Amino acid sequence: MQHLIRTSDFSKDEILGLFDDAREFLKFEPNEILKGKIIVTLFFENSTRTRSSFEIAAKRLGAEVVSLDVSTSSASKGETIFDTVANINAMKPDAIIIRHSECGLPESLAGYVDCPIINAGDGKHAHPTQALLDLFTIYEHFNGNTEGKKVAIVGDVRTSRVAGSNRRLLPRFGMDVSFISPECFRYDGDEFKTYIHISDVIDDLDVIMSLRTQLERHSEIYFESLNEYAKDYCITNEVVGDRDILLLHPGPVNRNVDISDDMLKDPRCKVLTQVTNGVAIRAAVLKKLILA
């Protein structure tokens, strides 16, 4: 039995196989390969895109989805998350999709289940399906020619699980990843190039991945307002100019803070393509793990 806790759980060949399936699922033709399967979603953090994307992916493959309301679950009565998951497992689902604020929790739950666990985001640690759909979007845009492409991840890289997963995944496909952020959001490691100003590298970039400023994950206030942050880090037409750069964002986008209104309408911005690709990638992940 295989789980998806982090992107390294899949080999490069397995990921390319996911992409083959995702291309088929992008046709959105009737498909019931998971008919009779039951998938449980267990989200301890708010989510719109990821949760609905998984649920739509599952239903497009014919599976039934049980979405548990954490606020009314036994966890609110003092039951541990381990007992909650063990009880759900005893009901014999075919997969459990979980999001939680605690880093490493999905991995620690693997010993309590007899079905695949899919990590839909754990704290600041990882968001593997988001990274996979980001990679798929880049891979398709460049027709598979990702070797040597330069990617800048811009914004709150310190607390972003999206940045965490992408910095591990994208280099496996030959991409050169760097980080751009104010000092307070700086990535602590030294294995990647880091910059304070996007102007330092903009002429060399093939991809910009903008991130949401996750103020809820910080214990200190670094900016008087998001507008102050946006002066230096909002991706605008003035910043990008006429350069041939692919613009991505995992969502939700803070308009005119992460990306300007005009740039969101620009054909180089593929935020909605990412959303579409997310359904296909998550369908491919469900197929792989459940039918393995």
UniProtKB/TrEMBL annotation:
Source organism of the structure: Arcobacter acticola
Pfam families per UniProt: OTCace, OTCace_N
Domain (Aspartate/ornithine carbamoyltransferase carbamoyl-P binding): residue spans on this chain: 2-140
Protein name per Swiss-Prot or TrEMBL: Aspartate carbamoyltransferase
Binding site for L-aspartate: 77, 161, 212
Keywords for the protein's UniProt record, in alphabetical order: Pyrimidine biosynthesis, Transferase
EC number per UniProt: 2.1.3.2
Summary of the function given for this chain in its UniProt record: Catalyzes the condensation of carbamoyl phosphate and aspartate to form carbamoyl aspartate and inorganic phosphate, the committed step in the de novo pyrimidine nucleotide biosynthesis pathway.
GO cellular component: cytosol
A GO MF label: amino acid binding
InterPro entries from the UniProt entry: Asp/Orn_carbamoyltranf_P-bd, Asp/Orn_carbamoylTrfase, Asp/Orn_carbamoylTrfase_sf, Asp_carbamoyltransf, Asp_carbamoyltransf_Asp/Orn-bd
Gene3D superfamilies, alphabetized: Aspartate/ornithine carbamoyltransferase (3.40.50.1370)
An individual GO BP term: 'de novo' UMP biosynthetic process
Top EC group: transferase
Subunit architecture: Heterododecamer (2C3:3R2) of six catalytic PyrB chains organized as two trimers (C3), and six regulatory PyrI chains organized as three dimers (R2).
Family membership: Belongs to the aspartate/ornithine carbamoyltransferase superfamily. ATCase family.
Binding site for carbamoyl phosphate: 49-50, 99, 127, 130, 251-252
PANTHER family, per database record: ASPARTATE CARBAMOYLTRANSFERASE, ORNITHINE CARBAMOYLTRANSFERASE, MITOCHONDRIAL
Annotated Aspartate/ornithine carbamoyltransferase Asp/Orn-binding domain residues: 147-287
Pathway per the UniProt entry: Pyrimidine metabolism; UMP biosynthesis via de novo pathway; (S)-dihydroorotate from bicarbonate: step 2/3
Catalytic reactions on record: carbamoyl phosphate + L-aspartate = N-carbamoyl-L-aspartate + phosphate + H(+)
